[in-house]
Prior knowledge:
Layout: H1 3-25, H2 33-49, E1 73-75, E2 85-86, H3 89-102, E3 110-116, E4 119-126, E5 129-135, E6 141-143, H4 146-149, E7 165-174, H5 176-188, H6 197-205, H7 210-215, E8 218-227, E9 230-231, H8 236-246, E10 254-257, H9 260-273, E11 281-288, H10 291-297, E12 307-311, E13 316-328, E14 334-345, E15 348-354, H11 358-364, E16 371-375, E17 383-389, E18 410-412, E19 419-421, H12 427-438, H13 450-458, H14 473-476, H15 484-497, H16 502-509, H17 516-526, H18 529-534, H19 537-540, H20 548-559, H21 561-572, E20 593-597, H22 605-614, E21 618-620, E22 629-632, H23 638-645, E23 650-651, H24 653-660
Helix pairs in contact: 1-2, 2-22, 12-13, 12-16, 16-17
Bound molecules: 2-(butylsulfanyl)adenosine (IVH).
2-(butylsulfanyl)adenosine binds next to β3 and β12.
Amino acid sequence: xxxxxxxxxxxxxxxxxxxxxxxxxxxxxxxxxxxxxxxxxxxxxxxxxxxxxxxxxxxxxxxxxxxxxxxxxxxxxxxxxxxxxxxxxxxxxxxxxxxxxxxxxxxxxxxxxxxxxxxxxxxxxxxxxxxxxxxxxxxxxxxxxxxxxxxxxxxxxxxxxxxxxxxxxxxxxxxxxxxxxxxxxxxxxxxxxxxxxxxxxxxxxxxxxxxxxxxxxxxxxxxxxxxxxxxxxxxxxxxxxxxxxxxxxxxxxxxxxxxxxxxxxxxxxxxxxxxxxxxxxxxxxxxxxxxxxxxxxxxxxxxxxxxxxxxxxxxxxxxxxxxxxxxxxxxxxxxxxxxxxxxxxxxxxxxxxxxxxxxxxxxxxxxxxxxxxxxxxxxxxxxxxxxxxxxxxxxxxxxxxxxxxxxxxxxxxxxxxxxxxxxxxxxxxxxxxxxxxxxxxxxxxxxxxxxxxxxxxxxxxxxxxxxxxxxxxxxxxxxxxxxxxxxxxxxxxxxxxxxxxxxxxxxxxxxxxxxxxxxxxxxxxxxxxxxxxxxxxxxxxxxxxxxxxxxxxxxxxxxxxxxxxxxxxxxxxxxxxxxxxxxxxxxxxxxxxxxxxxxxxxxxxxxxxxxxxxxxxxxxxxxxxxxxxxxxxxxxxxxxxxxxxxxxxxxxxxxxxxxxxx
Length: 662
Ligand code: IVH
């Protein structure tokens, strides 16, 4: 291979890293997503052709890792201690007084930072390359979550620096947006919701399969730079700037505070603006700015004496549960919603909270009339966290036996938490289905909100999503809160939706358990709606992540003649029914799925994967019936056993190369 290729690869990587930094760290992209994708594809193509050029810090290697059997324990270079808390103004003053006394009344300054509500992570770099990421654990020893941390896009895998080795500590968080999206997706899949962004960030970083972490869209904010377990600069502020200069995401909501007054102002400011942040914070951290002074103050056994966490109170309030109303969703699921005596929680008036399902009400021991504690956290919709006081004459809630909208029967299937209306024509279900179909990220029909959908369904103009494609300007214009302009915009949105790609159409159908991700996988695997419609449950399960439950749900959907008729009408409306799956066509390994395990004689695991993919095969991380071959090297462990128990053929590196024609 010529050095030209190597040079080109290095340049391309640098360019991609630059744009990733603009996009993921600075939130200020300079090029379009499509231009960025083109660069990445160019790099992938070169790497596929020259697997030996693949390096672990290449932008293509974020999700290369294999799922683990467990996480390795690693000792921290210096303990990861926590912070002492100040719960009120008085405790903050006490802290400041101690600092002043210990520093012998020298001048000192604070740096005010936000206390992000996630989990702390220590990330090690050698020669500019990210080598290891460790969770806090018990503070002395944490868990090696390197492969998962690599998938966090705002955490660089490579930085330009003259430090041979260094360590960055910071917080891994899930933004409120990613959190709501995840919970929505989990709901479509019939999985329980996560309680708050912190729990889901922690859960996402500690899953065994890095592909799952990658899908969760975590973020990393750096707040400490260490070398050999020590802070390297003399100023904490300068070290934050250094981190930002190296390409790490450092919270811009920080301030240099001359004294307690400045710090108070910082604390008040973010107490007010807390709601406008895209993530959860639980307070503010104040750190002594000068590192020599930090050293002078030192540590207690538990926490540094040079920093304090000023905690904001949780955004909770007490109120009375006045009633429980039942809403009917798109899949017919009945969701109990709490009607509350209006109460202000950190500036926002709350009068409703979600209760999810019957079991949740049971778990909380809730009855109408009770005094309850509600909390706002991450999600748009507040939730009831516990019962504060049982009311006299409280009324127990029972799921209705009839649908509150159409009056038809309600059933709760064995093993499911949701009760569902059985009537496929239920107006409530239809409205939700239309709203889902038209929503952003699905068919993107701008302006198709509650008010319009209610009218369209109530007036019988829309009886299924296919009817949207027959709506005319004359029908829409006279509707309430409409007008010619809005009507035109909606018709244009409907027109534009005809060319949305197949994964969106599939998602839009609202098949239970088929959300955005599964729709994408199905389209990539089967390439057309007709193939999916015709596939039996076994065939459907050939797709990744599609198990018996999802396959059965897809089958039941298409077995229903009404749904098939709907699909035909959508076809006639010109919607996209075919899809071009990502590359991987052709090549000697086309159609084959490999898992690589253990240490191979010449190829690294990533190189072996690149080889498989460049030959048209698929490299996955866990062994299942769908695995065609296990490529095993030295010290192969439980995957080898699993492959043997499933009768998956086991081959070595030489055989892999032979099959790949390398
Ligand atoms: S400094 C010894 N800065 O809060 C200094 N921590 O209760 C250690 N946290 O475990 C931490 N935002 O997970 C620091 N800007 C920030 C932070 C922060 C969140 C978390 C961190 C730590 C916990 C301490």
